[in-house]
Amino acid sequence: MKKLNNRTDGKGTKMIRLIKAWNNHWQGKIVSYILERLVMQVFKDRKIVNWDRALRTFFIESTRLIYERVSLPDRVYSHKSILDEYSQSYLLEILEWLKNFFLWLIPFLNIG
Questions:
Q1: How far apart are CA 88 and CA 67, in angstroms?
Q2: What's the Cα-to-Cα distance from 10 to each of 25, 47, 59, 62, 64, rounded to whole Å?
Q3: Residue pLDDT, tens place only, 93-102
Q4: Angle at which helices 11-25 and 51-67 pack, to 10 degrees?
Q5: Which end of the chain has fewer beta carbons closer than 10 Å to its terminal beta carbon, N or C?
Q6: Domain boundaries along the sequence of the chain
Q7: What are the DSSP calls for the chain, one per residue?
Q8: What percent of the chain has pLDDT over 90?
């Protein structure tokens, strides 16, 4: 988390809190830890300069990561992916939630 915040000028934690709050508000079914690891993976090599672009990037890239079953390393057991612990049907639910939420969010984003 410290590396993410250093790279994003402290915005990484804010992004995690924002995504988790939306997940709770919309009664999303995504486990909090998965959201945290997705934000950390998506912004591993990216900065958060513009919130609209950062949100767009998060939803597009997190969907790709789950769809392609890219390894999301566990912080404790770094040799395994946290996605391996969940069923294919649960991962499909996550993809559906991410897609629907992003479609809802698009009109509010100022991406030019």
A1: 10
A2: 23, 10, 20, 20, 25
A3: 888 888 888 8
A4: 70
A5: C
A6: 2-107
A7: -HHHHHHTTTHHHHHHHHHHHHHHHTT----HHHHHHHHHHHTSS-----HHHHHHHHHHHHHHHHHTT---B-SSSTTSBGGGGS-HHHHHHHHHHHHHHHHHHGGG----
A8: 6
N- to C-terminal Cα separation, the chain: 30
pLDDT at residue number 61: 92
Mind listing the pLDDT tens digit for each residue in 48-94? Answer: 888 888 998 999 999 888 888 887 777 666 677 788 888 888 888 88
State both tokens at 85. 């612990």
